Amino acid sequence: MMMNAFTYIFLAVLFAGIVLQWSLGRRHIQHVSRHRKSVPEEFSLEIPLDAHQKAADYTVAKVKLGFYELITASILILLWTLGGGLQLLDSAWRNPEYSPLVTGTCVILSFMLISGILDLPLSWVRTFKLEQRFGFNKSTLKIFILDFLKNTMVALAIGTPMILLVLWIMANAGAYWWLYVWFTWLVFSLFMMWAYPAFIAPLFNKFRPLENQELKQRIENLLERNGFTSNGIFVMDGSTRSTHGNAYFTGLGANKRIVFFDTLIDELSPEEIEAVLAHELGHFKCNHIRKRISTLAVVFLLGFALLGWLIDMPWFYNGLGVSESSTYMALLLFVIVSPAFTVFLQPLFSYISRKHEFEADDFAAGQAQTDNLIKALVKLYKENANTLTPDPLYSAFHDSHPPAPIRIAHLTTRTA
Ligand SMILES: [Zn+2]
């Protein structure tokens, strides 16, 4: 095995990330367990003790499964790189002597397929052990397997031409190939955002127009007041897989639509659903989608520029267990190894996301939805068994949404 200074840097960073995430998880478990005995006072009227304790147990179980996922993912990174997995794949596909473009595409596709299969056991545990144990799972083995097959087909159908195109650009576009690849990625992402709700989501779920007339009228009034046009309000059969409820805006331009999980419609009153939607609308009104796309575009531009430099550095390949440099290996190594480095940016992204949540809550409050939104949130926290007492550090690192007490306290100040 070839090792160089970069190998040791990579190993040190990977290890630091594991230690960091592990200790945050331990803190979270301890914090939640310490507060398991009693419901926080401000929720004592709405949340019974047994629901609070279920949330605590569910949270602890999720973190523990997260430990297994963290260790498995880290071992897989090591096996693919220093363990010689990628090298093996590369040698195997170089044997038949296809053109470099075809060889590269085959290597990347086989990597995707093998990774997908290796993910299955833990994904099965999450659905049929963890979610099942707490009464959230509605999926069956048949749905689970069909989902995997459909996901694989979609990834092959969309991924193959995309990989061919990217590898072709890398080989033919000269020194600034990374700029062209970045632009291709940007166009592709926007296209997928536009195409997803209409062409891909229906492969997995059934969508029907919202029938409840009272609710529909409320929503249409809300949208009209805010000058928002969409391509429809839909109800999705989320209950075929899980009892967790949600609502979201999806799509781009004229293809924008509003989707409610059927589970949410069953749990919340029309006024509460309207308040949840006002919050979602807040994300649009505050340009959060546009800001998120712009941030990602900048991050990816930096990433591709970095790859443009790394691709010519033999130590980058040798230090990660690959003997021969190639466009596709540079791409694969970069995709596999970068999460070990970017995990340290997680608190920044979580912070931005929580800031946007507060802004969307402010927008909903401005639409006179405060009380209904609070009621809806408390119900959702209870139904989804979200903990009311997360560890502050763990939450600052991981949480895309503010913890319940902080979020509701923020909304309450808006009514005063
Ligand atoms: Zn939100």
In short:
This protein starts with a helix and ends with a helix. The longest helix is centred in the first third of the chain and has 34 residues, at 100-133.
What secondary-structure arrangement, pairings included, does this model have?
Elements: H1 5-34, H2 49-80, H3 85-94, H4 100-133, H5 141-172, H6 177-204, E1 207-209, H7 213-225, E2 233-236, E3 247-250, E4 257-261, H8 262-267, H9 270-285, H10 288-310, H11 314-318, H12 327-342, H13 346-366, H14 370-383, H15 392-398, H16 404-415
Parallel strand pairs: 2-4
Antiparallel strand pairs: 1-2, 3-4
Helix pairs in contact: 1-2, 1-15, 3-4, 4-5, 4-12, 5-6, 6-10, 7-9, 9-13, 9-14, 13-16, 14-16
Salient structural properties:
416 residues; mainly alpha; 4-stranded mixed β-sheet; 16 helices; globular; binds zinc ion
Give your account of this protein's structure:
The protein is mostly helical and about 425 residues long. About 70% of the residues lie in helices and about 5% in strands. It is built from 16 helices and 4 strands. A 4-stranded mixed beta sheet has the order 1-2-4-3. A hairpin with a 6-residue loop joins β3 (about 245-250) and β4 (about 255-260). α3 (about 85-95) packs across α4 and α7 runs parallel beside α9 (about 270-285). The longest helix is centred in the first third of the chain and has 34 residues, at about 100-135. The site of zinc ion has 4 residues, from α9 and α13. Zinc ion binds near residues 279, 357 and 360.
